[in-house]
Design a protein that fits this description.
The protein is of the alpha/beta class. The protein is built from ten helices and eight strands. The protein has an eight-stranded mixed beta sheet. Strand 7 and strand 8 form a beta hairpin. The mean pLDDT is about 90. The structure holds adenosine-5'-triphosphate.
């Protein structure tokens, strides 16, 4: 099965995430994209909403998208969450096939600080999401010991293992989770930024309001 992973804090999930995950699935003919809810993301602040609320919002957001599925794999794992562990678990679902993983350019830039980056790169087709017209220096970002193992084929870098690395320009929407949290805390409308079900959930649970955070 051709499976993709689209990871995020999803605090909360918004229409930008849904659009880009859909473009990722379409670009590679993926049969399923797991919207992987991050537990305690390294390199960033603790999420405001609880893991349960973030997962529930992702479930609500994807209900009308047949290719997208909420995943709690990283939430139910004990201890620190390494991408490599996630990749191994998802490969089992994919019956051993290489899986596809989308990553924002900001996250890819931190790859040197990952746990065993080379093992991750050898096991996934990695797709770095870029803004049109803002190319990312894929090879320059990798440690030299790793970049040496790639050959360029057209616009795709192929690792010794057969796994690939490439950029995918996507159409970003002017929305972010922080923008939404700020709007809610100031009492502004977020109606066009999240799905109706996510909006109702945020309001019902009182998420992101100053008195609840
Ligand atoms: P925050 O504002 O809290 O930093 P975020 O909106 O960037 O959050 P994340 O959950 O951190 O949301 O994002 C998960 C992934 O989605 C990242 O790879 C990020 O680059 C991508 N992403 C986030 N917002 C957009 C958007 N508007 N368009 C395209 N991709 C996006």
């Amino acid at each position: 099965m051709k499976i993709g992973i689209f990871g995020g804090t999803f605090d909360p999930i918004h229409i930008g995430h849904l659009r880009v995950a859909g473009e990722f699935a379409a670009a590679f003919g993926l049969e399923k994209v797991l919207m992987m809810v991050a537990a305690t993301p390294p390199h960033r602040d603790t999420p405001i909403a609880s893991p349960e609320d973030r997962l529930q919002m992702v479930k609500l957001a994807v209900q009308d998208y047949s290719l997208l599925e909420a995943s709690d794999i990283e939430l139910i794992r004990k201890g620190p969450s390494f991408t490599l562990d996630t990749v191994k678990e998802v490969r089992e679902i994919a019956e051993g096939a290489l899986i596809w993983m989308a990553l924002g350019g900001d996250a890819f830039a931190l790859i040197r600080s990952w746990h065993r980056p080379e093992d991750v790169l050898a096991q996934v087709h990695l797709v770095v999401l870029t803004r049109p017209g803002s190319p990312v220096g894929l090879m320059a970002t990798l440690p030299e010991g790793i970049s040496r193992r790639y050959t360029l084929s057209g616009e795709i870098y192929v690792h010794d293992s057969g796994a690939t690395l490439r950029a995918l320009p996507v159409s970003p929407l002017d929305v972010s989770s922080s923008m939404i949290r700020k709007a809610v805390s100031e009492g502004d409308s977020i109606r066009d930024l999240v799905t109706v079900e996510v909006l109702q959930y945020i309001l019902q649970k009182g998420l992101y309001r100053p008195e609840t955070t």
